[in-house]
């Protein structure tokens, strides 16, 4: 059996104040076209369907069209989980009513424990377990589990799921998380501020395939079958050299066979162009893709009048302008200031931010003692 | 065949800063209990399911529970349309996928023309046509129809629907509109500011039953089978004497048989209490419903310290306080000022508000001429 694994659609995302909805529409049609041409047994979306919990109407209409094409026209089941950008309750409305039509939105823990089972000739029954994105507090609260990190939460959820395993079935997990050691991109939103959001891939070893979402770069981690598809398209300029696409996953009666990466092509690429203004303008006429979304980094060191207007006369979609040549001095100064800040200084800032009052002398001494004791411990 | 007609649930509504979600939950359970006990062939909700286009999560979860009880547990089809408070695209997500499970959310004009047909032994096929709430601009734009008022829009939509009529079926319309001559309540939001929002009931005469939403008072208009169920519960103090409930509609092979009004009972009534502070407090001990949501109108004419605190010691849910006794003087003064304002004064205020500059002398003269000409015309 074959299924498509995709994730991080982020429908409704804005990029430097430009709506990407038309680009997303074009790329999703490539997903639909692939299913139409080759036919697969299921399409999996591993979270961050929308870019925010209350998505704009255009994003809802687009998802509705795509879902109807896949489930209704092409009779292909779609299995999705909410990611950290989605509102689980909002995305999950009507999930119970949609199942019969082959649309499986797994948005709570009770649904997580009832796999979507797909019957195939060549691989028998394949059970898809979806783990709706949830922070450790939710897992602790809703499942009365003593977990305090993302890692512990995932370990607990994987244990719950593995108790449901039916040995006559193959087992696929869908999860939205940050596997420890995997590569980040700039366009992801951290799952946890301050605390650790990393999850050990060991928890996932018992599955035949793990369809991951959250990280925007396609990659596997720990084992070839624990894999990120990466995002639908590029969502930051720093991803300019990444390939975007989806995983075609093949499973047989013995489990994981392999994946094939199916590239997806956005109508506008995201690119960074660096150079002096006049040189960039001069060479634009030979650029085969002048409509791309561009970040232009000007290396001119003198002041320039209206550089954006001049650039847009040849590159209409310049979205951001940087002038590093003029900022070198400032940048270096800021960096050296940051390096000088001690642990005590950072804690003082944090305390002040949290309590609206500064540390007393006594408290400051106590914190200094703790820091010194810790440092002393580290050195031993 | 019998079906329940209800409307204007307004899930997620706040009332004087108090969330009504728990009250709405209790009342909706009465709807579910009725279906469980007596079993009906369908439940119709004629718009304003939610109180706003982006409802709070609690409202989504409540609707999800109710829908799952009705459609899944009780296998009773639910047919709903968006009202002027709902976001049609948002409410309609996944509609295509939900139909098979008996949840019919009719949120666009193409769905409007494909009725939900329910097969019954005693009435044959009953076709439910849902008209999603839409203003004349939408009808004009999406259906290329030359309509400019709500009345013309409804006439056009009814004509489109009646072309789909199958003479072997009974025909039920679900619409969210203001039928001309029907009674308003204070808690409705006008459908149109300035323009006319009234619809002639004549357009509806060709249906066997018309399940209306928008007006919060149960009533029929034009014919016994053109009927509002009224809102799920009271949403303003001025509705204190209204009965709230739903219509049990009976249809046979020959069409409309009749309706029975099934009362729904909110856990807190909404009441207005009027009197002097001390008298209200004294008689509270004999009040059988001290937990009701109250508007208290104090008739004391002297100043009172902390009247709200004193009242809440006996009536914990006093939500609003009025002191007409102390305002009589002011009120009368304002009213007489208002009466003295001429058309010219009102136009000057409007112009200033709209343009941020006063009328010039020349403009003022021109407006006076127009007003005088109009008055002259009226008198003839």
TrEMBL record, chains A, B:
The keyword Hydrolase applies. It comes from Vibrio tritonius. InterPro entries: Calcineurin-like_PHP, DNA_Repair-Maintenance_Comp, Metallo-depent_PP-like, Mre11_N, SbcD, SbcD_C. SbcCD cleaves DNA hairpin structures. These structures can inhibit DNA replication and are intermediates in certain DNA recombination reactions. The complex acts as a 3'->5' double strand exonuclease that can open hairpins. It also has a 5' single-strand endonuclease activity. This is Nuclease SbcCD subunit D. Residues 1-218 form the Calcineurin-like phosphoesterase domain. Keywords: DNA recombination, DNA replication, Endonuclease, Exonuclease, Hydrolase, Nuclease. Heterodimer of SbcC and SbcD. Residues 267-353 form the Nuclease SbcCD subunit D C-terminal domain. Belongs to the SbcD family. NCBIfam families: sbcd.
